[in-house]
Structures are given as C-alpha cells and as structure tokens.
Amino acid sequence: MTVAELPEYIVECPEGYKISLNKPITIDSANVQVLTMREPTVQDMLAAEMQAKGQSEANQEIAMFANLCSVAPDNIKGATLKDYRRIQEAFKLFTA
C-alpha cells in the first residue's frame, strides 16, 4: 500500500503513522481521538513476546501495539473492534 492508497484514518508522519479513531479512548482521564504509532524494532517484538509470555497471541499483539503507541495495554483493550482493526492496519504498513 502506498501513501496515496492510505485510508483517510491513517496518515503518515515523521514518527510513523497517526491513526484517527472512530471513538475516542480514555487515557489518564482524557479522551484521545488520535494515536501515533512508531515503527517497530526487533526489540519491540521480543519485548512484547516476553510481556505476554504464556498468554494468547492477541495479548502479545496488544502489548506490541501499546508499546508502539506509547499507551498502556488496557488503553488498547478499551478500543472498539473497529478502531482495533485500524490499529492493526497501521501496524501492517510497517511490515509490507
């Protein structure tokens, strides 16, 4: 997917991608409408594996996304499924 093909809710930025959420999530008592996801490293992948050791692949993915977006895993878990799919879509752009 090229930048021209990005959906309107994902915008490339110097830090990585900005993801506009359909429904805000609450972080530290503030409603957050946009998450910024930085490009992952191999170390991020290893850290997510260790953090979610013995848990499901979904929990490992949530740990990875939370780290890349600089939020707590519970913040990602509080997103709607539609917004979670947007986060997954942004992540896939780094691995394409």
From TrEMBL:
<protein>
    <submittedName>
        <fullName>Phage tail assembly protein</fullName>
    </submittedName>
</protein>
<dbReference type="InterPro" id="IPR019289">
    <property type="entry name" value="Phage_tail_E/E"/>
</dbReference>
<dbReference type="Pfam" id="PF10109">
    <property type="entry name" value="Phage_TAC_7"/>
</dbReference>
